[in-house]
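Teaching assistant here, posting this on the class forum so everyone can see the example we discussed in section. The complex has two components, and the goal was to see what a joint structure prediction looks like when all of them are supplied at once.
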Amino acid sequence: MKLNERGLLVVISGPSGVGKGTIRKALFEIPDNNFIYSVSMTTRKPRAGEVEGVDYFFVSREEFELGIKNGEFLEYAEFVGEYYGTPLSYIDKQLQEGKEVIIEIEVQGALQVREKMPDAVFVFIVPPSKKALIDRLTARGTERSSEIQRRLEKAEREYNLAYKYDYIVVNDDVFNAADRIFAIIRAEHAKTERSIHKYYKLMEGKE
Amino acid sequence: MKLNERGLLVVISGPSGVGKGTIRKALFEIPDNNFIYSVSMTTRKPRAGEVEGVDYFFVSREEFELGIKNGEFLEYAEFVGEYYGTPLSYIDKQLQEGKEVIIEIEVQGALQVREKMPDAVFVFIVPPSKKALIDRLTARGTERSSEIQRRLEKAEREYNLAYKYDYIVVNDDVFNAADRIFAIIRAEHAKTERSIHKYYKLMEGKE
């Protein structure tokens, strides 16, 4: 029995190249989970096979800009002339239904989310060693060394922001890391500030 | 991989009759755990079959009182003319070895521990409903109704202290409750304040 019935917004972030996407996928493979991956809104046209409300919410430029004006995005960015953003109303609806909403975003985006949703759970994924991160960033193949250098500097800046997160999880093994995030979600629901309200209701015999 | 290598002191507490002892036992049945149950020190004589360092540390009254004087107890109490207490040095040694030290104590004792070990994890066990607690307290058998009334009043005072704990766990099912405490322990190790020091060491390439 879970005292806190509202879902959690779980932000998975960390330096580029750390394996956030793989961990997020492993998380969704945990049996009997009630996780929802946050669906983004975009102004770009759907590609073949993409489904409205599954891959993206597809909207016009005018609609998106109205959304920005009305503060309807948790975070958004413009990329190659198209907007991409996370609509707040969608997330709130899922949380109210008790779903755990998982967002996987870059460090800068995560810190923006922190300001709008202080209640969310912020998990910073880190490599098991500095060498492991360098190996991953340099192993992607054919880039020029200046590009690799730029990436390393970005990773350096990013991994110094760990202290802004609630939890630090090592990506030594992807299933181990996903499992620890699952434990974090279970523990967060039991936190006194999230559960005491329902507990007092139970004790008053009202539920 | 766990960034925080020091063990956690986990205090399991809650109103009398809530089933703390059963949950603690279920916790120790979790496979591959590294839990240690805190061994108390006492001045009473060993009973048949009791083993020094397993059931209790048996000491003389003089030794125990010297311990009190030197502040060597996490908490202690006198009961029917004999002392019982939790020695700090034993706990500290286990934590340093990376063991999770589990203590199961009454609410008043737990609040004393909080003052001495703010770093510990405090879990408050609650019944799934007020009725469940009343049923348990009154079902123990042959006590007079005045004794039952006294217990109910004690439970009422105790369960209003939930807000002083870090987590609230419902004892709806003993294995479910134990499993949630296990998740709490895993999550606590990943907390930024416990893990960032080791993380920065890793990033400096020192480990």
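For the discussion questions: The longest strand of chain B covers residues 73-79. Chain B has a mean pLDDT of 89. Think about how each of these relates to the inputs above.
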